[in-house]
Amino acid sequence: MADPYDEGTAAVAEHVLRLREVGVEYRTPGGTVTAVSDVSLDVPSSGITVLAGPSGSGKSTLLRVLSLVERPTLGGVELRGRGTARLSSRARRALRRTEIALVFQNPGDNLIGHLTVGDNLRAASQAAGRPPRVDELLTRLGLPDTAAWKVSALSGGQQQRLAFGCALAREASVVLADEPTSQLDSASADLVLETMADLARQGVPVVVASHDPRLIALAHTRYDLRNGALAA
Ligand SMILES: Nc1ncnc2c1ncn2[C@@H]1O[C@H](COP(=O)(O)OP(=O)(O)OP(=O)(O)O)[C@@H](O)[C@H]1O
Ligand SMILES: [Mg+2]
């Protein structure tokens, strides 16, 4: 398969993702809004990295940039030591299928609702060209014997755990999550936190945007944002 990257040969990367002087601006009818300005940060290749900060500080915008969903207005994103600026939209989509998993806030947005639990995991493996590992993953997620269940039969917390399981099924290089516990009761949120910690223990780097203190407490690396910039 052709190398989908555009620049050089990656050394063994110590950081799975890096942002270099990233700025994000949006044109709105009321003028230009600066969502992120001059952010440089490194996401280590292991552990949980938290992007913390109040509402409107730029957490979700940075996650979209880190996950190659959105191109920054300024600056660059490196994935495993390689620049991504000149990648085509198609190459970026391919990387999002195979390397980068993004978990959204709303559990229902992360799964294919009309498929069973097992078929969601199988679809995730297949999309990334990986072998299916349904039973192993369900056991690991604490959801054994649910392979034949409809996704809608799972609670919100179970759905979020399955969403992280789909990232494992894809064998993604990095998992990013936008406030994955904010729509859950605290017992369900605890189990999702455990799943994330588990993922990190297995060597999968996790990047989470959150202002949940329990999640921030799990961080190995933490960046605080204020008004779109890193806080001093
Ligand atoms: N598509 C857009 N168009 C215009 N402005 C935007 C757009 N997306 C984000 N913004 C603005 O950029 C800033 C950062 O937004 P962002 O959603 O990244 O913050 P956040 O830290 O995730 O907030 P929250 O905790 O509420 O989710 C806000 O001022 C927001 O209004
Ligand atoms: Mg947000």
Summarize the structure.
The protein is α/β, with parallel strands linked by helices and 232 residues long. Helices cover 31% and strands 27% of the residues. It has one domain: 3-Layer(aba) Sandwich (Rossmann fold).
Description:
By secondary structure, the protein is an alpha/beta fold. It has one domain (18-230): P-loop containing nucleotide triphosphate hydrolases (Rossmann fold, 3-Layer(aba) Sandwich), CATH 3.40.50. It has 7 helices and 10 strands. Strands 6-7-8-3-9-10 form a 6-stranded mixed sheet, with helices on both faces. It has a 4-stranded antiparallel sheet with strand order 2-1-4-5, with helices on one face. A hairpin with a 2-residue loop joins strand 4 (74-79) and strand 5. The protein is globular and about 50 Å long. The termini are far apart. The relative contact order is 0.20. Adenosine-5'-triphosphate (ATP) binds at residues 26, 28, 33, 35, 53, 55-61.
Task: Detail the topology: elements first, then pairings.
Layout: E1 15-28, E2 31-44, E3 48-52, H1 59-66, E4 74-79, E5 82-83, H2 89-98, E6 100-103, H3 117-127, H4 134-140, H5 156-170, E7 174-178, H6 186-201, E8 206-209, H7 213-216, E9 221-226, E10 229-230
Parallel strand pairs: 3-8, 3-9, 6-7, 7-8
Antiparallel strand pairs: 1-2, 1-4, 4-5, 9-10
Helix pairs in contact: 3-5, 5-6
Features:
single chain, 232 residues, alpha/beta, Rossmann fold, 6-stranded mixed sheet, 4-stranded antiparallel sheet, 10 strands, 31% helix, disordered N terminus, binds adenosine-5'-triphosphate, binds magnesium ion
Tell me the fraction of residues in β-strands, as a range.
25-35%
The tally of strands reads: 10
Bound molecules: adenosine-5'-triphosphate, magnesium ion
Number of domains: 1
Strand order of the largest sheet: 6-7-8-3-9-10
Query: Average pLDDT value?
Result: 92
* CATH class category: Alpha Beta
By secondary-structure content and strand pairing, the structural class works out as: alpha/beta
CATH topology: Rossmann fold
The CATH homologous superfamily is called: P-loop containing nucleotide triphosphate hydrolases
